Amino acid sequence: MIMALLNILNYPDPRLHTVAKPIKEVNADIRRLIDDMADTMYDAPGVGLAATQVNQHIQLIVIDTSKEQNKLQVFINPKILAKSGSQDYEEGCLSVPGVYESVTRAEKITVEALDKQGKLFKLEAEGLLSVCIQHEMDHLLGKVFVEYLSPLKRNRIKTKITKLLRDR
Ligand code: GNR
Ligand code: NI
């Protein structure tokens, strides 16, 4: 099997702030992108990837929070129907390499989305899966998790990553 690894945009790339459009039809092109995004996520490695991060501004997310990394979950045009509670989680992001910071989000969520076959499904999530879905849905809105941090922290992160990318 030939893998296609996609380039991941790094913060503070302005393209990360693009708002993604809904997908009209789950066709072969979309399924190819899903496969390439999954390969890219597993290779990184990461537990999630939003199409925004690979410069595709459509509402598509892949997630795998399983220990064995063998339970791929696909969310197309996801909508949060309900949320409750709150939790703090130390988040990281493939677009913000080497940065881990605590973010407060809803504890439990109910999400509706289309799967890889274009079939509507509903899911209740908590813990890491809930955090990850919320983190990825933010990407689709053009939002990166560092935007929850103070301007001081965010500026330090911008400088750190710009240097990291310059020196590599
Ligand atoms: O790989 C990832 N790990 C992670 C850890 C805690 C909270 C969120 C995440 S998502 C991240 C992959 C990523 O950047 N997805 O957009
Ligand atoms: Ni991310």
How are the secondary structure elements laid out?
Elements: H1 28-43, E1 48-50, E2 60-63, E3 73-84, E4 87-93, E5 96-105, E6 108-114, E7 120-125, H2 127-140, H3 151-167
Antiparallel strand pairs: 1-2, 2-3, 3-6, 4-5, 6-7
The structure holds ligand GNR and nickel (II) ion.
Q: Spell out which ligands are present.
A: ligand GNR, nickel (II) ion
Distance between the termini: 30 Å
Form type: globular
Summed over residues and divided by their number, the pLDDT gives a mean of: 97
**Oligomeric state of shown chains:** single chain
Main β-sheet, in a few words? 5 strands, antiparallel
In short:
This protein has about 170 residues and is α+β, with helices and mostly antiparallel strands. About 30% of the residues lie in helices and about 30% in strands. The two termini are about 30 Å apart.
